[in-house]
């Protein structure tokens, strides 16, 4: 069931503060895709910057960890998994596991206190064993076992992917279902049945720590569930003791209190100056503000995640602390939110077809050797040549136009593109609309070259089809 709407004034929030927040978030470097704010369980502000849309899924990166933690809490409450059981007891014969690994519990994994002093697996999606038709043992588990913790479990904290991956595989082993199946049944269907996707390993296993694609309303509903102590619409999702404990930072994870990444980490949630949050790379947030009975969901394309939180504290918190209400500002805010957009590139010039080689400074894999651009009735058509098949992209002139790139396994990557000729060169933005990522295109007939770079390279690497995910 979707969260019901209200107005800022009705929930004791000054809409002028939210307008100032929008002003600040639309300054360069923040790259927002969506924003939702709820107070007292009611949605008081929501908006999507075109071409991003309300019903479209969005890659959450490490925000996936908070969904995995929620599933884990539920299974702990059901007695299916124990937080204090050795995590490898669900995955291997403990006698075959190195001695220090045997002491690593499920609790250590979900709190990132496995014992590694640094991330033991900087996952990029291209460092896995080759794709295999074998449905047997998880090859990644054997690789993980080779990197034994260098510190004592529970006494060392390091942000990592290994811990949550082990939790995800323990969930699958204990229940016979992948994490995504639990996310669907336990969370997404009760939240309203929104679409979702998940990236998986070559062997088809859910990552748990990343790869979850969900809608912004689903992110907001997850935050609201935690704000309400693990309860959604009167139904308990996670037990009360887990809901109370999960946001609390472990002692070994706390390094200070100045910044929002220094205040420590709980069970896949970060402590912060106000409340706590789940977050993911490039600015994906589920912010829980118990002291204000409010939650915030954000998707974006930024590397300055700290600045986004700073702006929430600067503008949102004061808007909820005061008693001023302004119905006129409510209307102004609603109108502003309905018209949000990333301005598409546009121009009237058309040119005949051309084919250009990619420059050495381009960031796509070398197999993408050249680009062909052709005029069309509504803009342009660009084809990225590749031995496995070209990626054909419709590029709108003054508007965003969508294309679907076919990825291995029948998956698709959705691309929203706009572009135009300017000063003798063709520039375009290819927004991978279900991710935080954008490819910037610059074609220069004068130098006879094409340059394609990422605004921010995906964590799965520079090949755009590796961002594809499985619907579930």
Describe the protein.
The longest helix has 17 residues, at 305-321. The chain contains eleven helices and 21 strands. The chain has two domains: 9-338, Beta-lactamase; 354-471, no CATH class. It has helices at 15-25, 63-77, 99-102, 106-110, 139-146, 162-175, 179-191, 216-227, 240-245, 305-321, 327-338; strands at 32-39, 42-48, 58-59, 196-198, 212-214, 231-232, 235-236, 270-271, 276-280, 284-289, 294-300, 354-357, 370-376, 379-384, 391-396, 401-407, 411-422, 425-432, 438-444, 449-454, 470-471. It has 472 residues and is an alpha+beta fold. A six-stranded antiparallel β-sheet has the order 2-1-11-10-9-8, sandwiched between helices. The protein has a five-stranded antiparallel β-sheet with strand order 16-17-18-19-20, with no helix packed on it.
Task: Give me the secondary-structure topology.
Elements: H1 15-25, E1 32-39, E2 42-48, E3 58-59, H2 63-77, H3 99-102, H4 106-110, H5 139-146, H6 162-175, H7 179-191, E4 196-198, E5 212-214, H8 216-227, E6 231-232, E7 235-236, H9 240-245, E8 270-271, E9 276-280, E10 284-289, E11 294-300, H10 305-321, H11 327-338, E12 354-357, E13 370-376, E14 379-384, E15 391-396, E16 401-407, E17 411-422, E18 425-432, E19 438-444, E20 449-454, E21 470-471
Antiparallel strand pairs: 1-2, 1-11, 3-5, 4-5, 4-21, 6-7, 8-9, 9-10, 10-11, 12-13, 13-14, 14-15, 16-17, 17-18, 18-19, 19-20
